[in-house]
């Protein structure tokens, strides 16, 4: 291949100049293939070759790297081909060519900001550990050292940037490191300035002045360009000095920073330090105390100044003073959107920026023009300022993080945010590559074809061998501008609340500000978030949207009557989005006041019901009919389960349907409970029936699974124990059980026992094991067999004969007490009858020895001292605390043990029925039974309310006022009467405990 063709293939624009430089004596003897392999990596091989020849002239040892394999030489060629200015820097300072002694990384790591600060301070021989570092070199020597160290950092960053696999992905890290490098340079400049000021003022006075440099704009946001003005604000702490003296010295320090950074010298200045964003701009003093800043912002600042402060960040100087400044201005920033005319002032400023672009630059602007960076930034900042007051997740300084936060918060659609982010990164990448070439502050797209060709290559990652035509670059840029402009106009200029402010009628139309105020007045903690849900529900011209606009003024009020109106509105939106296209949903809410009010009530008062409705939204249909909310009987549920099982022989499919039925019925019971259609006793019985049907279904499936591998050899029966046996469970209850089996005729006992163990093991796993796909929002039924003979040490299942033998020989009084709640739950009916006949004499003895009574009392006392959780307040523990569930239930059970043998009325698994029977037998006074049952029912109700409100089980009366309020509402107390519930429970439980101690302990 001819030399000219090789130059063309490598991307050269000036072939004649390329041939001349290739013939330069500095390159004599270099491997031409290695040289071209490196030049092909350069975005601008012409510039790379010229800089290389000049560098080798200064530093001949560079020939080795220039002729090395691309793995070693890649950083050199990429930097020289992307930045003529950095090539010039290295020609001036060839000692920094060792920056290329590195291996390019496709996933580079950003430099540590503290490390950059240390390096820049050391360049001027200042102590990085000093509270207020002072340089040991000043004047041109100090300025040159600082600037050289800064540009060395630029070279290192450019290597990472140009070698990163995905330049768009790495772009935010580049901006952050550039800002950190600028902050480090200003820190070093301040150290030099302090040294110089000490020559003019007393060194002690200079040391007494605290100066914080607040970065603004892109530097403050850590998204700086390669070359850009660094906007700053100076804050001073006068220390012990008078303000006038402090201002004089502070001004000298600030001026010294600018001099060190940008005055003329042997090493050119870096960039302009611009303090025009300070209070009063150019007319105001260069430095101010914190108090002076606060006074200005409180009284005189304009809206645009708060938008500028959105980016404010301490970048150098006194970090403590800077932190106080940031803390002082933060509340002003996030309340600024409430200023009169704020939104329009932001929009007007954006229009003015566009209008002031010179006509000859308008079509070339990457930053200021239509579809440019400013469109993205103004849009994002306006949304941040409007919504950031109540949503702290939006309080980000940099644009990419802010876009992500706005998307996460739902303020921008995910697809819009993704497009906005991609467009912003692309425009910033163009800006970076253009500026990097000559390190000049420009935001204009080049016009020369050669420059466009180099830029088209520069924006590609290192893994691309393409050299796109300039037209492809311009096409991509124009498409990006169109995308940005469309998103900007759609988001930036949309009404903040749109038509959602006018929801139902002409009288109810609200301005956006009034809508926010009304939501706040109703009790919504996040009015902007509520408005987003309202906009989503009411936007558009569909019939569904029109109906929502009619309904929402009323529904918002009903939702606000709940404890969590924000969560209720969010759940309402989710349910509406799931059902909104159905023909009946909105009609039901419109035509049935009961349905609408019930829906609002449950969504704003119950996490459990909200979660269940979101995954079973069709259940909303029950809300309009008390009949549909009536719990299904056990028989009806079992009939449905058997029907499903007959059509689904696969065990997993059958169990999925059984568990879905249970989830559905728990939801039905909870809604009926919330509507006041069930009392606490009915809730417990209905939930027990639902668990019973599920357990029987699981037993039949388990038997089917086992029978698939061997013939059935035994019959298994599940016995409900504890509150499950008494049909007194709550929404968070496990199922306490025992298992009994009886082998079929002719089956050896050990074979029957082994198969029974397999069946009950499978039953438990079928009820609890995760299914794929998962049953969302399911409250898994945990089966606990710890009340069986010998507890956890005993076999999981026993034959009827084994139970008979055990109870005959080994039974203890606590086991007789546990059997008081035993109730056949699922399995063989004949076996169930025989088991009941077996245990009745044990649990209802004719007499109870006094030592057994003492043992029951001893176990109860031990349980109170050992099982109450560490740190728990006995007065607030619903189960084990004083006058709680345990006290009432153990009292009833002791009376049953002592008297049920002679009084059949006491032979019941129900605590309520046992106590009522005790009253009728005059074992307890009627008033005492009323008191005990009130305390017991209230504790049960609170326990269920904990689950209803949070979705999690808890045995403690809440201490949090909000949680207590939610529990009180569920227990039937009015708005704001949480303290009344607390007082009632503590009083009732205290009185119940007194009865318990008198009767149970005989005190």
Can you characterise this structure?
Helix 35 links the parallel strand 7 (735-743) and strand 8 (783-784). This protein is mainly alpha-helical and 1003 residues long. It contains 44 helices and ten strands. The model is unreliable at 494-511 (pLDDT under 50). Helix 9 (139-163) runs antiparallel to helix 10 (167-200), helix 18 crosses helix 19 (399-408) and helix 36 (800-809) runs parallel beside helix 38. The strands form two sheets. Strands 1, 2, 3, 4 and 5 form a five-stranded mixed beta sheet that branches. Strands 6, 7, 8, 9 and 10 form a five-stranded mixed beta sheet that branches. The radius of gyration is 39 Å and the shape is elongated.
